[in-house]
Amino acid sequence: MEFRKTDHYTVNGWDDVRFLISTNPGEPMKPLDSVASGGELSRIMLALKTVLAENDEIETLIFDEIDSGISGRTAQMVAEKMKLTSASHQVICITHLPQIASMADTHFLIEKTSDDSSTISRIRLLQREESIAELARMLGGVRITEAVMENAREMKKLADAVRPDSVSECNKVS
């Protein structure tokens, strides 16, 4: 973190504070807001929230679309870290990625409907097979084939197997 004194008093006091980061080995520290990609910001936020929760005894962590800017292997690593964090904290996560959604112990579906005068949001608890069907929809889009359903079942099976001692070495670092 970098702290500077402003030349005048503001609603935030005299201090101007910036987070600095080096996103690659050997690079100098630069302001987080100007160099971090959406995916890097997501991973940094996950790390900060996890560390703070462990030290401040925060009971519930809320991640609203922490998957912004990530996909594939990175999404899987973030999902595993969130799953491990959920062993000691309640984790509420809003996501559009099946890698992250598959890790949920409890899966809710939020649906919005609109007409000319209003928009209504509904939330409902999904049973296991409904959760798998929703994962398939996230994976396959409009046409859900048996191959997509099998992929969703496999994702859920692999997610169920994630335990603190089964996470990859690269995922153990916060």
In short:
The protein is an alpha+beta fold and 174 residues long.
Protein architecture, described:
The chain has 174 residues and is of the alpha+beta class. It is 40% helix and 26% strand. The chain has a two-stranded antiparallel ribbon with strand order 1-2. Strands 3-4 form a two-stranded antiparallel ribbon. Helix 5 crosses helix 6 (146-160). The longest helix is centred in the first third of the chain and has 19 residues, at 38-56. The two termini are 18 Å apart. Mean pLDDT is 85; it is low at 167-174.
Return Rg in Å.
Answer: 20 Å
The poorly predicted ranges are 167-174
* Mean pLDDT across all amino acids: 85
Strand ordering within the main sheet: 1-2
E-strand count:
8
Question: Beta-sheet strand percentage?
Answer: 25-35%
Figure out the total of helices. Answer: 6
Give the class from helix and strand content and strand pairing.
Answer: alpha+beta
Shape: globular
Helix content: 25-40%
Pattern of helices and strands: EEEEHHEHEHEEHH
Query: What profile does the largest beta sheet have?
Result: 2 strands, antiparallel
Could you give the distance between the termini?
Answer: 18 Å
